[in-house]
């Protein structure tokens, strides 16, 4: 009996000791250096890491599994030393990984099915471990962009509410008119929205999300009903969900601390959006209001660059010049297709028009892709 | 969906196995009065896991936010659980011995199971995986679509694990007493060895122990962890498709001496290893109900 008591006490004591050492040693409140999370889109065959260059410090990855297998996400240092990992990312959910990364080169890996070496990708961490935002100019840049996000999300919420009301009251014409307007505010800040994993496909997913086992909801679902059948009598619940999803993302976007790299990468992503979704006309395939989205993407990109402008002028003045001329060319090319307060429909553009737009975007994408490296210097 | 269900099953099994054997053991050795402590330990572990999971998921806490801190937490609690489970294995051995040709009443002499020890064992068995499970649940609840697919699949998996735990308990309490102690003891050794191997792996992942990439074997071609049998083997005995050399060494270093000591038919003596205490040292005085050791805390 004595022995048992002794063992119990000794083990309890040891546990308390180790436990305290284990939890207490690192609980020194290290601050998040890079405010925004890096979105990782994992499927059974791919591992898309939203940004492959980050600033040193605490890096947060938001891993979304849209495959059918359970996956794991790792960050490895040289020799496959595990810097951080998140396991048990079951299909259809997102999980976060917080990992402290000093400057250096790393590898990211998704492991669909929980075995093997995983789908690897390079990750470069630059700068000192002092957070990027410590730099006053960069901090000012993120603050300024944060204010832009706030103003856009406010308008997004107002216009989405109007749009949803029109849908629920059966006002087809009103809803059709509001659709591209509400989307404008969404498209301007889409890269911020993408940080929040699965909310993006819920709000802005196209019919292809069905193939990933998700429901087809949000803007495009309502768009399909408005423009194909004109029957929105059963869309009340869809409209309500859209509004609640938008409310959620607005709250999250305003609470999110963005990093300067989020801005740089966001500016680039918006142009990629234009190239892949808008020029092809696949984004708004029923309403053909792609040019509204096109313009909003470009405006959002411009806003991010404008926020970074003081930093870029100081560090890479020639880059600023080429960015300015790039945006000017895009604006002029797109300006030809204005129609009243809005834009021409995608179907009204000729192949030649689309090619001109595409060239203008590609010309701008080239300098924009250099911004992240300048910011991370 | 099935993949998600299996994850729930695996996480659930890792907690329920030890608890169900513990309960069977207490019921079998007429110590039902200890059951509230078991449930108390389980409840505390669940509450703590849910609370810490909530903190991590919905607040910007830095406590255990980093994966290596969580690995360390799991490693430490796993190794602590192994210590308690090992002590229990040797209580069983004492019980099995005092049964040989003696009266059942002697059991209470041989088994001085402190209520704190019982509660702590149940607590550790559940808490070591509880936080991770809670986090999976939160993320599933957050990203659940309207049909709540992942969440229901996870709940289904955990419920199945509890069902398996109950079946194990129900079949264990039915078998003959001597065989019960021998078999559940042996089963428990394998479970404990698995937990020990798991803890070793977590220490490696937390960067405390080296050799995370030094693999002993890789049979992922044969044993796919995403299959039902891969899940069961992983959840019950931590048999994994890829194991590091250190894990295998740790597993062997635990299993071989403990199994030998457990199966040795030797006289009552000091069946102790370096880290574990054996409570089989008391001789059966014929006083019937011996006082039970209450750890003075």
From TrEMBL, chain A:
Residues 141-370 form the Imelysin-like domain. It is found in: Periplasm. Keywords: Signal. GO terms for cellular component: periplasmic space. InterPro entries: Cupredoxin, EfeM/EfeO_iron_uptake, EfeO_Cupredoxin, Imelysin-like, Imelysin-like_EfeO/Algp7, Imelysin_sf, Iron_uptake_EfeM/EfeO. It comes from the Bacteria. Belongs to the EfeM/EfeO family. This is Iron uptake system component EfeO.
TrEMBL record, chain B:
Residues 275-290 have a biased composition (Low complexity). The chain crosses the membrane at residues 6-26, 38-56, 76-95, 107-127, 151-168, 180-199, 245-264. It comes from the Bacteria. It is a multi-pass membrane protein. One of its GO terms (molecular function) is ferrous iron transmembrane transporter activity. One of its GO terms (cellular component) is high-affinity iron permease complex. PANTHER family: IRON TRANSPORTER FTH1 (PTHR31632), PLASMA MEMBRANE IRON PERMEASE (PTHR31632:SF2). Belongs to the oxidase-dependent Fe transporter (OFeT) (TC 9.A.10.1) family. This is High-affinity iron transporter. It comes from Micromonospora pisi. The lineage of its organism: Bacteria, Bacillati, Actinomycetota, Actinomycetes, Micromonosporales.
């Amino acid at each position: 009996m004595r022995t048992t008591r002794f063992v119990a006490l000794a083990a309890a004591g040891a546990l308390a000791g180790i436990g305290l050492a284990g939890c207490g040693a690192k609980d020194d409140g290290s601050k998040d250096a890079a405010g925004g999370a890096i979105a990782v889109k994992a499927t059974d065959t791919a591992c898309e890491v939203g940004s492959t260059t980050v600033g040193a410090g605490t890096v947060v990855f938001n891993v979304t599994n849209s495959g059918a297998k359970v996956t794991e996400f790792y960050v490895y240092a040289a020799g496959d030393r595990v810097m951080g990992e998140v396991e048990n990312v079951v299909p259809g959910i997102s999980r976060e990984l917080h990992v402290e990364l000093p400057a250096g080169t790393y590898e990211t890996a998704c492991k669909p099915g929980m075995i093997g070496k995983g789908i690897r990708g390079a990750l470069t961490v630059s700068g000192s471990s002092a957070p990027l935002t410590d730099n006053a100019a960069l901090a000012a840049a993120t603050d300024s962009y944060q204010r832009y996000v706030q103003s856009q999300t406010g308008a997004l919420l107002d216009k989405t509410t109007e749009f949803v009301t029109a849908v629920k009251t059966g006002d087809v014409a009103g809803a059709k008119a509001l659709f591209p307007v509400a989307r404008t505010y969404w498209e301007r800040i889409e890269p911020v929205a993408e940080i929040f994993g699965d909310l993006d496909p819920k709000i802005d997913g196209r019919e292809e999300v069905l193939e990933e086992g998700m429901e087809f909801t949000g803007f495009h679902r309502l768009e399909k009903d408005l423009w194909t059948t004109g029957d929105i009598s059963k869309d009340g619940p869809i409209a309500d969900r859209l509004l609640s999803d938008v409310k959620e993302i607005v709250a999250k976007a305003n609470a999110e601390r963005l990093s300067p790299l989020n801005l740089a990468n966001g500016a680039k992503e918006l142009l990629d959006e234009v190239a892949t979704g808008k020029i092809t006309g696949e984004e708004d395939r029923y309403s053909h209001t792609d040019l509204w989205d096109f313009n909003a993407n470009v405006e959002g990109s411009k806003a991010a660059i404008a926020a970074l402008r003081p930093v870029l002028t100081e560090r890479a003045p020639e880059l600023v010049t080429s960015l300015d001329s790039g945006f000017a060319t895009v604006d002029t090319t797109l300006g030809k297709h204005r129609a009243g307060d809005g834009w021409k429909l995608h179907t009204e553009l000729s192949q030649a028009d689309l090619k001109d737009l595409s060239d203008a975007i590609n010309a701008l994408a080239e300098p924009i892709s250099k911004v992240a490296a300048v910011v991370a210097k | 969906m099935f993949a998600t269900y299996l994850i729930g099953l695996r996480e659930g099994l890792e907690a329920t196995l030890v608890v169900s054997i513990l309960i069977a053991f207490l019921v079998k050795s007429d110590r039902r009065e200890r059951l509230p402590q078991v449930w108390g330990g389980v409840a505390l572990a669940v509450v703590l896991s849910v609370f810490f999971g909530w903190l991590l998921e919905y607040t910007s806490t830095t406590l255990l936010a980093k994966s290596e801190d969580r690995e360390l937490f799991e490693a430490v609690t796993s190794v602590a659980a192994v210590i308690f489970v090992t002590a229990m294995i040797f209580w069983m051995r004492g019980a099995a011995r005092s049964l040989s040709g003696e009266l059942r009443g002697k059991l209470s002499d041989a088994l001085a199971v402190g209520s704190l020890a019982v509660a702590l064992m149940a607590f550790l068995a559940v808490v070591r995986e509880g936080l991770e499970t809670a986090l999976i649940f939160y993320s599933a609840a957050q990203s659940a679509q309207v049909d709540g697919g992942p969440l229901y699949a996870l709940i289904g998996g955990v419920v199945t694990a509890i069902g398996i735990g109950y079946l194990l308990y129900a079949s264990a309490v039915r078998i003959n007493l001597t065989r019960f102690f021998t078999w559940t003891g042996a089963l428990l050794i394998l479970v404990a060895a698995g937990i020990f191997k798991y803890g070793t792996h977590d220490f490696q992942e937390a960067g405390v122990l080296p050799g995370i990439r030094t693999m002993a074997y890789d049979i992922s071609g044969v044993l796919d962890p995403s299959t039902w049998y891969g899940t069961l083997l992983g959840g019950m005995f931590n048999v994994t498709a890829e194991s590091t050399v250190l894990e295998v060494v740790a597993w062997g270093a635990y299993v071989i001496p403990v199994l030998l000591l457990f199966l040795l038919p030797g006289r009552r003596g000091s069946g102790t290893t370096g880290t574990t205490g054996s409570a089989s040292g008391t001789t059966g005085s014929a006083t019937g109900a011996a006082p039970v050791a209450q750890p003075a805390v």
